[in-house]
Design brief:
The complex is a heterodimer of chains A (247) and B (290).
Chain A (H helix, E strand, L loop, with lengths): L11 E6 L8 H12 L7 E2 L7 E2 L3 E10 L6 E8 L7 H4 L6 E3 L6 E3 L9 H5 L6 E2 L6 E2 L5 H4 L12 H5 L5 E5 L6 H9 L15 E3 L24 H12 L1
Parallel strand pairs in A: 1-11
Antiparallel strand pairs in A: 1-10, 2-3, 4-5, 6-7, 8-9
Chain B lengths: L4 H21 L7 H22 L20 H26 L4 H23 L10 H18 L3 H22 L2 H4 L4 H5 L5 E7 L7 H6 L8 H21 L4 H24 L13
Classes of the chains: A alpha+beta (247), B mainly alpha (290).
Chain lengths: 247, 290
């Protein structure tokens, strides 16, 4: 059913810490692995060893350079992007078949692949590029928030989080319930000023990004007090230096 | 956006077909018998052919019937319903004209209104998308409706209406282009809002997530032929609007009418190609492509 629920019992989603992410792409690979081996159509690659390889991924890591206005050193930010499980998800309402839906119990946006006709309109409606048509199965693929892990009692409790969160070696990804103000994700957003992507699109995304902390302006506060390491050249190099100065 | 030939064919032909059926249902031209068979047949072939073309881009066309279920929220679903109902109502009207020679006038009015409703639903599939600021505007629907009406007037040989409607469509197209060119900029979406990093400083895309293309870049970050956009706009205006109006202003004969239709059709295809190729999806911002 493509009518959006007016409210959901829980709002499950991710917090992604842009200060901590090192851009290793481990989340991309673990996501591709889990979602190829488990729920739904496998995430295919077409022409994988040819001239124009193309494949479907549910999570991709962009990198951006930011030049601060005050002439401070430029910053390189690694930016993982996946479905934001929007409260006002435009991808759901445009779907003609009812394959796309948002769950009332936890707010996860999912695709029922056996109902998907592969028209691609939901991918057009998403401003974030969170949906990709699988090149082999020709159905729409998107992040499921690892719905087959988070409730899976056959897994050890520590593994009942999305694959990307479980695998992140830097601890840059956090999973939780945004409807609960006491949850880990709500607290992180409150403490660090978590941001919404493209709020002007009116999608009310659930996932939040923690902005990078400001970089130190000076390299080391003690630097001016240290003795210089470089010394005057002596011997042949010293003579050469003096001679070249005189030329 | 990637200008897929199946979608260009679908929107252009079904628009023309429903435009022609609308005029025929209103009694322009006033035809009966075999002439009516040819005119209505042409309308149904264009409208139906366009709809069939639209299924060619589906990943799973065998499940197309499921698209009738979500008319409460989905313009694509509404368009499917309206198209089927319109073909049924206009079919009934046409059958009465052809087989009994009677014109059921209220049914004709209903059929014509449904034709325009279907074209409006088609336009809303695009105009509803906030993620593509150029399309997210009333002029998209106005453009689709005026092009369907002017094509219908031209195909039905309603010369005086055709001249006025083609002129109106041309002016609306120029308005859509001139206002549309700044709509992405005015939408408030840019690389700063897309990444949320604008507060720190100037954001530039440093490295994409993948070395090749992907579905998103193929489908939504289409930039290839924009460099010729201005030339193509002039060509489209000439073929689609100026040439047909000039030919229609000359003393009427069938050769000129066919030439006018051919020019309008060619112009329409260029227009529709530009409609997709020039549309900037905001996901391109993540790739530093806007």
């Amino acid at each position: 059913m493509t009518e959006l629920p007016t409210s959901t019992d829980r709002k499950l989603g991710l917090v992604i810490d842009l200060d901590t992410c090192v851009g290793c792409h481990a989340c991309v690979i673990s996501c591709k692995g889990w979602n190829t081996e488990n729920y739904g159509a496998p995430l295919a690659d077409a022409d994988a060893y040819g001239a124009h390889p193309v494949g479907s991924f549910l999570n991709r890591v962009h990198s951006y350079e930011i030049q601060p206005a005050n002439d401070a050193p430029a910053q390189l930010i690694h930016f993982p992007k996946s479905c934001l499980h929007c409260e006002d998800a435009p991808c759901v309402t445009v779907c003609p078949t009812g394959a796309s839906y948002k769950r009332v119990e936890d707010g996860i946006v999912l695709v029922n692949e056996s109902d998907c006709i592969g028209c691609g309109l939901c991918a057009w409606a998403c401003p974030y590029g969170a949906r990709e048509l699988d090149p082999v199965e020709k159905v729409m693929k998107k992040c499921t928030l690892c719905v087959d892990r988070i409730y899976n009692e056959n897994l050890p409790e520590v593994d009942r989080v999305p694959a990307c969160v479980r695998t992140c070696p830097a601890g840059a990804r956090h999973f939780g319930d945004f409807a609960d103000p006491a949850s880990n994700v709500s607290q992180l957003v409150a403490d660090r000023g978590g941001i919404e992507l493209m709020p002007e699109q009116g999608t009310k995304p659930v996932n939040r990004y923690l902005p990078p902390r400001p970089k130190d302006a000076e390299i080391d506060v003690l630097a001016p007090l240290l003795a210089p390491v470089a010394q005057e050249a002596t011997g042949f190099i010293g003579w050469l230096d003096t001679m070249l100065e005189k030329l | 956006m990637h200008p897929a030939p199946s979608i260009i064919l679908f929107t252009a032909l079904s628009g023309l077909g429903f435009g022609l059926l609308a005029f025929l249902c209103l009694g322009y031209p006033d035809v009966t018998g075999w002439v009516a068979v040819v005119f209505f047949g042409f309308g149904f072939a264009l409208a139906g052919g366009g709809l069939i073309a639209s299924t060619f881009h589906l990943g799973h066309p065998e499940r197309a019937m499921k698209a009738f279920t979500q008319w409460r929220t989905s313009w694509l679903s509404r368009e499917g319903w309206l198209a089927v109902i319109t073909l049924a109502v206009t079919g009934l009207y046409a059958a009465a004209v052809v087989f009994t020679g009677t014109k059921i006038v209220p049914l004709g009015w209903l059929g014509a209104a449904l034709c325009l409703g279907t074209v409006y639903a088609t336009s809303m599939i695009y105009a509803q998308l906030k993620s593509i600021p150029r399309w997210h505007h009333w002029s998209t629907s106005a453009m689709f409706l005026l092009l369907a009406l002017s094509g219908g007037a031209l195909l039905s040989g309603t010369v005086s209406a055709a001249i006025v409607l083609i002129l109106a469509a041309g002016l609306m197209q120029v308005f859509a282009w001139t206002t549309g060119d700044s709509r992405l900029r005015d939408s408030g979406s840019d690389i700063a809002s897309a990444t949320g990093l604008g507060a720190i400083g100037k954001v530039t895309a440093f490295e994409p997530p993948h070395s090749g293309g992907n579905y998103l870049t193929h489908e939504m970050v289409f930039v290839v032929a924009r460099k010729h956009a201005m030339k193509l706009r002039v060509i489209a205006l000439g073929l689609g609007f100026a040439v047909p109006i000039f030919l229609l202003l000359l003393p009427f004969n069938h050769v000129l009418a066919v030439l006018a239709i051919a020019a309008h059709l060619a112009g329409l295809f260029v227009l529709r190609w530009l409609f997709f190729a020039e549309a900037e999806h905001v996901v391109g911002l993540y790739y530093g492509k806007r």
